[in-house]
Amino acid sequence: MPLDYRRFNGPDDSVSYKRFTPDFLKSYEELLGDLLEKNNLKDEQASDEAQRVFAETDTISQAKGSAYVEIKNTKVVCSVFDPREIPHQNEFSHLGQIYCEVKFAPFSCSSQRRPPAPDAEDKALSEALRQAIEPAVCRHLFPNYQIDVFAYIIENDGSCLAAAINAAGLALTDAAVPMYDLITASSMAILDDKMFVVPNEEEEELAMKSQESKDINHGVITLSMLSELSQITSFIQIGSLETDCVIKAMDILEKECKELVPNIQKVVVRNVIKNVKRQQILHESAKEMEEILDEKYNLWQKSLKAKSYLCFSLSFFSLLA
Amino acid sequence: MTGHVSIRLASERVNHSVATSNELPRFYTPGEVISGMQDFMRGHGTYTEDDNLKSSVAGVMQKVNKLICIRPLKSRYVGEIGDVVVGRVLEVQQRRWKVDTNSRLDSILQLSSVNLPGGELRRRSVEDEQSMRKVLQEGDLISAEVQSVFSDGSLSLHTRSLKYGKLVQGTLVKVFPSLIKRRKNHFHNILGISIIIGNNGYIWISPREKESTENDDLENIEKAKLEPVSISIREIMARVKNCIAALVASKMMLDDTSILMAYEESLKYETAKEMLDPEAMLDIAFLTQHRLNYVTTE
Amino acid sequence: MAGSLISQSEQVFIVHGVENDFRSDGRSSIDYRPMELETDVVSHASGSARLRLANTDILVGVKTEIDVPKPETPGLGKIEFFVDCSANATPEFEGRGGEQLANTISSTMQRAYYSPQAFNLKQLCIFEGKQCWKLYVDILILECGGNLCDAVSLAVKAALFNTRLPCVKAALMDGGNIDLQLSDDPYDSKQLDIGTAPLLVTLCKIGTKCVVDPSAEEERCSVISLVVGVTGNPNFYQTDDNVIPDIKCKCSTISMNGPGSLSPKTLKSAIEQGITAANCLDNALGDALLREKDEISYLKKHSYGFLK
């Protein structure tokens, strides 16, 4: 990676102190045991994952549209800016383009500090985000223009791509970019016969690592779809999974995405209502102001007339004298 | 269900050469002196310097009386008036289309050299000019004839005959233009399909067009042009396409006879996809060459 | 990709052909075009391979270097992929034109090789926690005629098959530093175990069906393609008879490319189609590599070179 000379990079060989904590030294089996234990405790609470999403739009005032999404501890903020002409391009393109940038905050990950310059993972995520939202946008409506979508991951606790896609979809809706359908995404970590829907960082990491000696299914899948049109816009799998397992996971994720739609709709509607109300208030206050102004104006006119009459008569009298 | 995959090693590479004679012509390289200037005329592919005639391309010499030309071994298409070409529309411009014909410069098709619906002697109105995209748009393929050659070497085309015009369903094969033999006829209706061997090295293979009856209106004809092509026709088209590929790999001249012969030789292969194999390609080319030699010596 | 224009009626012809499972050169939906492979073509690389698939030409060189393993995985080596889309392939790649494509391919490869069941990084370990081998897999795209992902993955697997790691005779702890003693004999080297290394299969959705190995024209007709990475079968890559129990092929990565989308049903059938195709590819590749290996052991290798 090219060095970033504009910033002070800190010593190259610094390591996180967490390496020396007992947690780090735990073996794979121990970690797995811990995780399962934790999960057993958790399972009593409803596993309705769709309920654990918190979303809000219109969080950044200067962007055309923006959204903030929280899934478990993962926090993503996403903003969409006005379309602009595609830079550095001479050829005319009939379809608009979407430019995505996903960035991790330097302090977003638990294990180590993220470098401020984008690395390979950031780029791969940006590409994945573009792939996911591109089919949803009516790109023929803004030929030769580009819409910028920036997603910033403030805190990463697993399934950050799914959160970023959800946030980007909401931000696009908030920016009133024409879209075919609402876009929702969900992810899943698979470890042997266990499936963790919307995994947290621990689960994700364990599912990715796996034990090489055993020939078990392990991996992470992120799926985004347009539920109303029943179209999958992106499907990213990593790890090693049997086909049956992939297909089973797909069905679950599909359902998960569908369940997420009403939540997202609610956020959008809430935002619309908020805006309408705000507009109403503005409208009413404007009316009030107008009335007051009108009144003042009338008063002023009256006084002006009186004054001018006075002036006139005064000058008249002075002439006479 | 298993797919066909073949991976061969470089050491098992097939030599596609089928040349029978070992005599090689004299080759000239750029900058090489051909002769003194005294009694020769400078043709294409040559230049003069210090009273010497020199080659500017790599190729073989052609001499017509006093005129000396060097014909490059591999070149883009150099057009001549009356050539049949197949081209692709690149751009719609003011009153003309820009067409890619594999020549050095893009060719031009004027709006005035196209047959528009409603008779040949129709005047080109402003409306025609505005709806040029309806006639031909970017990406469309056409067959045309070279009408004239501009001073800079770019070609002016025309499609003012019923046999020329927009091409619909089919596949395009691109070969070296030097492999195309100049013939009287470049439109062939053989084997139940039609082949247009463009002089520019673009070969168009398409199903034969159905005879349209008088009472068909325009819309129906348009619709018929996009109807699915039957599998048997597809099989023949694929075979012809692969035959051409085989002949080209062995650098053999292409015309209706060689294609037809190659097709007949290819019938021993059961499916068209078997002919993608380099050995099969060589086999077909070799047998065709053999038959051609036999015919010419007879 | 390669910005050739194509007319609407040509597209119709291709789409109908795919629907009938008879493509314009006679192939069916899971047939590949013939390929040509050569290994050990670059003398300065530890392993190299060149693969030609119709008009696509890929050259892969593997360089091995010594590195310090990551603190969280002290027992594992490293592998990294770099793709270079040179402007030699098409003028479109000039400047930063090919960068996006290169990034997509390299990140797909990285993902495909991620799982230890696909490529075991333990074999690159020299001294746990201190030193390991790092493989730099550099992929050069010399010519671009469609279906890059598949060709790249085949060439990479062949290059890794060809890679020889020098034997480490001894590793001595000298204070905090490690002293490595390598064997003097350059032929004293070990091969990598790449039997399970994944192959990528691109499934191009044309009309309502998916095809493998699309030509450049077919790629123009499609708006979405699915890339499926499938782990290999080690049985194809060894000559001796001690047959390892057949491992079922698994998906090591799946991703989508292009501006379109897929219905869930198509996606499912495409994944299965991809696994079938990958199995055929793996079989053919193993066969070719073993033939090549035989040849090299009999006579001194004669190099054939690039771009036929």
From TrEMBL, chain A:
GO BP annotation list: nuclear mRNA surveillance; poly(A)-dependent snoRNA 3'-end processing; rRNA catabolic process; rRNA processing; U4 snRNA 3'-end processing
UniProt keyword terms in alphabetical order: Cytoplasm, Exosome, Nucleus, RNA-binding, rRNA processing
Cytoplasm found in the keyword field: yes
SUPFAM superfamilies: Ribonuclease PH domain 2-like, Ribosomal protein S5 domain 2-like
One Pfam assignment: RNase_PH
InterPro entries: ExoRNase_PH_dom1 (IPR001247), ExoRNase_PH_dom2_sf (IPR036345), PNPase/RNase_PH_dom_sf (IPR027408), Ribosomal_Su5_D2-typ_SF (IPR020568), RNase_PH (IPR050080)
Main location: cytoplasm
PANTHER family documented for this protein: EXOSOME COMPLEX COMPONENT, EXOSOME COMPLEX COMPONENT MTR3
Protein name: Exosome complex component MTR3
UniProtKB/TrEMBL annotation, chain B:
Gene Ontology MF, one: RNA binding
InterPro entries reported for this sequence: Exosome_cplx_N_dom, Exosome_RNA_bind1/RRP40/RRP4, KH_dom_type_1, KH_dom_type_1_sf, NA-bd_OB-fold, S1_domain, S1_RRP4
PROSITE patterns: S1
Cell location: Nucleus
GO biological process entries: CUT catabolic process; exonucleolytic trimming to generate mature 3'-end of 5.8S rRNA from tricistronic rRNA transcript (SSU-rRNA, 5.8S rRNA, LSU-rRNA); nuclear polyadenylation-dependent rRNA catabolic process; poly(A)-dependent snoRNA 3'-end processing; regulation of gene expression; TRAMP-dependent tRNA surveillance pathway; U4 snRNA 3'-end processing
Keyword Ion transport: no
Domain S1 motif: 82-160
SMART domains cross-referenced by the UniProt entry: S1
GO cellular component: cytoplasmic exosome (RNase complex); nuclear exosome (RNase complex)
Highest rank taxon of the organism: Eukaryota
Keywords: Exosome, Nucleus, RNA-binding, rRNA processing
Similarity comment text for this entry: Belongs to the RRP4 family.
Protein name: Exosome complex component RRP4
Organism per entry: Papilio xuthus
UniProtKB/TrEMBL annotation, chain C:
Record-given protein name: Ribosomal RNA-processing protein 42
Family assignment from sequence similarity: Belongs to the RNase PH family.
Domain called Exoribonuclease phosphorolytic: residue spans: 32-166, 198-275
GO MF terms, alphabetically ordered: mRNA 3'-UTR AU-rich region binding
PANTHER family (UniProt xref): EXOSOME COMPLEX COMPONENT RRP42, EXOSOME COMPLEX EXONUCLEASE RIBOSOMAL RNA PROCESSING PROTEIN
Domain of life of the native organism: Eukaryota
Residue ranges of coiled coil: none
Signal sequence region: none
Annotated Gene Ontology cellular component terms: cytoplasmic exosome (RNase complex); nuclear exosome (RNase complex); nucleolus
Keyword entries, A-Z: Cytoplasm, Exosome
One of the protein's GO biological processes: U5 snRNA 3'-end processing
Source organism (scientific name): Papilio xuthus
Location of this chain's protein in the cell: Cytoplasm; Nucleus, Nucleolus
Gene3D superfamilies: GHMP Kinase, N-terminal domain
SUPFAM superfamilies assigned: Ribonuclease PH domain 2-like, Ribosomal protein S5 domain 2-like
UniProt xrefs under Pfam families: RNase_PH, RNase_PH_C
Cytoplasm found in the keyword field: yes
InterPro entries: ExoRNase_PH_dom1, ExoRNase_PH_dom2, ExoRNase_PH_dom2_sf, Exosome_comp_Rrp42_subfam, PNPase/RNase_PH_dom_sf, Ribosomal_Su5_D2-typ_SF
